[in-house]
Amino acid sequence: MLLHRLKFLLIVALLVSNLLAGILGIYYLQTLNRRYAALLESRVPLLDHLRTLTRELGAVQRLALRVTGPVRDPHWPELVRLLDETSNNAKTHATEIALMESVRETRSRSALLTESLDYDEKADAFLALVRRQDTGPARDFLASTLRPAYRRYMLVLDAVAARTQNEGNDLSADYTEDSEHFGNLLLLVTGWPLLLIGTLLFLGVILTAILVSTMRVPGLIGSHATDQE
Protein backbone atom coordinates (compact mmCIF):
# COMPACT_ATOMS: atom_id res chain seq x y z
CA MET A 1 0.00 0.00 0.00
CA LEU A 2 2.79 2.36 0.94
CA LEU A 3 4.65 1.54 -2.26
CA HIS A 4 1.60 2.37 -4.37
CA ARG A 5 1.23 5.72 -2.63
CA LEU A 6 4.88 6.53 -3.23
CA LYS A 7 4.47 5.66 -6.92
CA PHE A 8 1.39 7.88 -7.16
CA LEU A 9 3.14 10.79 -5.43
CA LEU A 10 6.17 10.35 -7.68
CA ILE A 11 4.02 10.45 -10.83
CA VAL A 12 2.14 13.54 -9.60
CA ALA A 13 5.38 15.29 -8.70
CA LEU A 14 6.81 14.40 -12.11
CA LEU A 15 3.79 15.83 -13.93
CA VAL A 16 3.76 19.00 -11.83
CA SER A 17 7.49 19.59 -12.23
CA ASN A 18 7.33 19.11 -16.01
CA LEU A 19 4.35 21.45 -16.24
CA LEU A 20 6.12 24.12 -14.21
CA ALA A 21 9.29 23.63 -16.22
CA GLY A 22 7.35 24.08 -19.45
CA ILE A 23 5.68 27.28 -18.24
CA LEU A 24 8.96 28.63 -16.92
CA GLY A 25 10.72 27.72 -20.16
CA ILE A 26 8.16 29.52 -22.33
CA TYR A 27 8.25 32.65 -20.15
CA TYR A 28 12.04 32.73 -19.94
CA LEU A 29 12.58 32.19 -23.66
CA GLN A 30 10.04 34.86 -24.57
CA THR A 31 11.70 37.32 -22.18
CA LEU A 32 15.14 36.40 -23.52
CA ASN A 33 14.01 36.80 -27.13
CA ARG A 34 12.40 40.19 -26.47
CA ARG A 35 15.45 41.51 -24.64
CA TYR A 36 18.00 40.45 -27.23
CA ALA A 37 15.73 41.37 -30.14
CA ALA A 38 15.41 44.91 -28.77
CA LEU A 39 19.18 45.20 -28.34
CA LEU A 40 19.89 43.87 -31.82
CA GLU A 41 17.21 46.00 -33.46
CA SER A 42 18.73 49.12 -31.93
CA ARG A 43 21.92 48.37 -33.89
CA VAL A 44 20.25 47.86 -37.27
CA PRO A 45 19.10 51.50 -37.80
CA LEU A 46 22.55 52.72 -36.75
CA LEU A 47 24.27 50.54 -39.34
CA ASP A 48 21.79 51.69 -41.99
CA HIS A 49 22.45 55.34 -41.16
CA LEU A 50 26.20 54.75 -41.21
CA ARG A 51 26.01 53.16 -44.66
CA THR A 52 23.83 56.00 -45.94
CA LEU A 53 26.13 58.65 -44.49
CA THR A 54 29.20 56.95 -45.94
CA ARG A 55 27.54 56.79 -49.35
CA GLU A 56 26.55 60.47 -49.19
CA LEU A 57 30.00 61.61 -48.13
CA GLY A 58 31.53 59.65 -50.99
CA ALA A 59 29.04 61.25 -53.41
CA VAL A 60 30.04 64.71 -52.13
CA GLN A 61 33.67 63.98 -52.87
CA ARG A 62 32.89 62.79 -56.39
CA LEU A 63 30.74 65.83 -57.10
CA ALA A 64 33.43 68.09 -55.66
CA LEU A 65 35.94 66.66 -58.12
CA ARG A 66 33.57 67.23 -61.02
CA VAL A 67 32.74 70.86 -60.19
CA THR A 68 36.43 71.71 -59.75
CA GLY A 69 37.64 69.91 -62.86
CA PRO A 70 39.91 71.69 -65.35
CA VAL A 71 37.12 71.62 -67.92
CA ARG A 72 33.81 73.14 -66.87
CA ASP A 73 31.07 70.53 -66.91
CA PRO A 74 28.06 71.50 -69.08
CA HIS A 75 25.79 70.48 -66.17
CA TRP A 76 27.75 72.55 -63.67
CA PRO A 77 24.75 74.35 -62.04
CA GLU A 78 22.95 71.03 -61.52
CA LEU A 79 26.11 69.50 -60.07
CA VAL A 80 26.44 72.36 -57.59
CA ARG A 81 22.81 71.90 -56.57
CA LEU A 82 23.35 68.17 -56.05
CA LEU A 83 26.52 68.88 -54.13
CA ASP A 84 24.69 71.23 -51.79
CA GLU A 85 21.75 68.84 -51.36
CA THR A 86 23.89 65.78 -50.72
CA SER A 87 26.06 67.68 -48.25
CA ASN A 88 22.96 68.78 -46.31
CA ASN A 89 21.63 65.22 -46.29
CA ALA A 90 24.93 64.02 -44.87
CA LYS A 91 24.69 66.62 -42.08
CA THR A 92 21.18 65.41 -41.24
CA HIS A 93 22.23 61.78 -41.05
CA ALA A 94 25.28 62.64 -38.94
CA THR A 95 23.04 64.44 -36.45
CA GLU A 96 20.63 61.52 -36.31
CA ILE A 97 23.49 59.10 -35.68
CA ALA A 98 24.88 61.24 -32.86
CA LEU A 99 21.45 61.31 -31.18
CA MET A 100 20.92 57.54 -31.30
CA GLU A 101 20.92 55.83 -27.92
CA SER A 102 23.45 53.21 -29.05
CA VAL A 103 25.92 56.04 -29.81
CA ARG A 104 24.89 58.65 -27.26
CA GLU A 105 26.24 56.68 -24.29
CA THR A 106 29.61 55.78 -25.84
CA ARG A 107 32.98 57.48 -26.23
CA SER A 108 32.55 57.34 -30.00
CA ARG A 109 29.97 60.13 -29.85
CA SER A 110 32.53 62.78 -28.92
CA ALA A 111 34.87 61.84 -31.77
CA LEU A 112 31.94 61.61 -34.17
CA LEU A 113 30.66 65.07 -33.27
CA THR A 114 34.13 66.59 -33.47
CA GLU A 115 34.94 65.21 -36.91
CA SER A 116 31.41 65.85 -38.19
CA LEU A 117 31.48 69.52 -37.23
CA ASP A 118 35.00 69.93 -38.60
CA TYR A 119 34.07 68.31 -41.91
CA ASP A 120 30.80 70.27 -42.23
CA GLU A 121 32.63 73.54 -41.62
CA LYS A 122 35.14 72.75 -44.34
CA ALA A 123 32.44 71.51 -46.71
CA ASP A 124 30.54 74.80 -46.29
CA ALA A 125 33.72 76.76 -46.98
CA PHE A 126 34.30 74.68 -50.12
CA LEU A 127 30.73 75.25 -51.32
CA ALA A 128 31.17 78.99 -50.82
CA LEU A 129 34.21 78.93 -53.12
CA VAL A 130 32.33 76.87 -55.69
CA ARG A 131 29.33 79.20 -55.70
CA ARG A 132 31.68 82.14 -56.33
CA GLN A 133 33.09 80.07 -59.20
CA ASP A 134 36.59 80.33 -57.76
CA THR A 135 37.54 77.04 -59.35
CA GLY A 136 41.30 77.24 -58.71
CA PRO A 137 41.07 78.06 -54.98
CA ALA A 138 38.22 75.55 -54.62
CA ARG A 139 40.39 72.82 -56.21
CA ASP A 140 43.29 73.64 -53.89
CA PHE A 141 40.99 73.73 -50.87
CA LEU A 142 39.56 70.33 -51.83
CA ALA A 143 43.00 68.73 -52.06
CA SER A 144 44.61 70.36 -49.03
CA THR A 145 41.72 70.70 -46.57
CA LEU A 146 38.43 68.99 -47.44
CA ARG A 147 39.77 65.59 -48.48
CA PRO A 148 41.96 65.17 -45.35
CA ALA A 149 38.93 66.10 -43.23
CA TYR A 150 36.89 63.55 -45.17
CA ARG A 151 39.46 60.81 -44.51
CA ARG A 152 39.52 61.58 -40.77
CA TYR A 153 35.73 61.57 -40.73
CA MET A 154 35.63 58.17 -42.46
CA LEU A 155 38.04 56.69 -39.92
CA VAL A 156 35.65 57.65 -37.12
CA LEU A 157 32.63 56.26 -38.99
CA ASP A 158 34.48 53.01 -39.67
CA ALA A 159 35.32 52.73 -35.97
CA VAL A 160 31.67 53.26 -34.99
CA ALA A 161 30.54 50.67 -37.54
CA ALA A 162 33.14 48.15 -36.35
CA ARG A 163 32.14 48.66 -32.71
CA THR A 164 28.47 48.21 -33.60
CA GLN A 165 29.21 45.02 -35.53
CA ASN A 166 31.25 43.65 -32.63
CA GLU A 167 28.46 44.46 -30.18
CA GLY A 168 26.00 42.62 -32.41
CA ASN A 169 28.30 39.58 -32.51
CA ASP A 170 28.71 39.71 -28.72
CA LEU A 171 24.93 39.86 -28.27
CA SER A 172 24.50 36.81 -30.49
CA ALA A 173 27.13 34.94 -28.49
CA ASP A 174 25.51 35.97 -25.19
CA TYR A 175 22.11 34.84 -26.45
CA THR A 176 23.52 31.44 -27.40
CA GLU A 177 25.26 31.08 -24.04
CA ASP A 178 22.16 32.07 -22.05
CA SER A 179 20.05 29.65 -24.06
CA GLU A 180 22.50 26.82 -23.38
CA HIS A 181 22.57 27.58 -19.65
CA PHE A 182 18.80 27.61 -19.49
CA GLY A 183 18.64 24.36 -21.45
CA ASN A 184 20.97 22.71 -18.95
CA LEU A 185 18.91 24.03 -16.05
CA LEU A 186 15.69 22.84 -17.66
CA LEU A 187 17.22 19.41 -18.23
CA LEU A 188 18.19 19.27 -14.56
CA VAL A 189 14.70 20.28 -13.41
CA THR A 190 12.86 17.82 -15.65
CA GLY A 191 15.34 15.03 -14.96
CA TRP A 192 15.07 15.07 -11.18
CA PRO A 193 13.05 11.81 -11.04
CA LEU A 194 15.92 9.99 -12.74
CA LEU A 195 18.35 11.54 -10.28
CA LEU A 196 16.10 10.48 -7.41
CA ILE A 197 15.79 6.93 -8.69
CA GLY A 198 19.52 6.71 -9.27
CA THR A 199 20.21 7.99 -5.76
CA LEU A 200 17.75 5.50 -4.22
CA LEU A 201 19.30 2.63 -6.19
CA PHE A 202 22.76 3.68 -5.07
CA LEU A 203 21.67 3.88 -1.44
CA GLY A 204 19.92 0.53 -1.80
CA VAL A 205 23.08 -1.11 -3.08
CA ILE A 206 25.09 0.39 -0.23
CA LEU A 207 22.55 -0.73 2.41
CA THR A 208 22.35 -4.21 0.88
CA ALA A 209 26.12 -4.53 0.95
CA ILE A 210 26.19 -3.43 4.60
CA LEU A 211 23.45 -5.91 5.57
CA VAL A 212 25.18 -8.76 3.74
CA SER A 213 28.47 -7.96 5.46
CA THR A 214 26.75 -7.81 8.85
CA MET A 215 25.07 -11.18 8.32
CA ARG A 216 28.34 -12.83 7.33
CA VAL A 217 30.33 -11.67 10.36
CA PRO A 218 28.77 -14.03 13.02
CA GLY A 219 29.30 -17.04 10.74
CA LEU A 220 32.92 -16.15 10.30
CA ILE A 221 33.41 -15.84 14.07
CA GLY A 222 31.72 -19.19 14.79
CA SER A 223 33.76 -20.94 12.15
CA HIS A 224 36.95 -19.56 13.62
CA ALA A 225 36.00 -20.74 17.13
CA THR A 226 35.26 -24.28 15.90
CA ASP A 227 38.63 -24.51 14.21
CA GLN A 228 40.38 -23.64 17.48
CA GLU A 229 38.59 -26.42 19.35
Could you walk me through the main structural features you see in this protein, from its secondary elements to its overall organization?
The two termini are 51 Å apart. The longest helix has 66 residues, at 2-67. Helices cover 92% and strands 0% of the residues. The protein contains six helices and no strands. Mean pLDDT is 76; it is low at 223-228. The chain has helices at 2-67, 76-99, 101-104, 108-131, 135-190, 192-228. By secondary structure, the protein is mainly α. It has a domain at 43-172: Four Helix Bundle (Hemerythrin (Met), subunit A) (Up-down Bundle), CATH 1.20.120.
Describe how the helices and strands are arranged.
Layout: H1 2-67, H2 76-99, H3 101-104, H4 108-131, H5 135-190, H6 192-228
Helix pairs in contact: 1-2, 1-5, 2-4, 4-5
Hey, roughly how much beta strand do the residues contain?
under 5%
State the name of the first-level CATH class of the domain at 43-172: Mainly Alpha
Low-confidence stretches: 223-228
CATH architecture of the domain at 43-172: Up-down Bundle
What structural class should be given to the helix and strand makeup?
Answer: mainly alpha
Q: Please tally the helical runs, counting DSSP H or I stretches of 4 or more residues.
A: 6
Proportion of residues in helical segments: over 70%
Order of helices and strands: HHHHHH
Largest sheet, described in full? none
Features:
229 residues, Four Helix Bundle (Hemerythrin (Met), subunit A), mainly alpha
Brief synopsis:
Helix content is 92%, strand content 0%. The protein has helices at 2-67, 76-99, 101-104, 108-131, 135-190, 192-228.
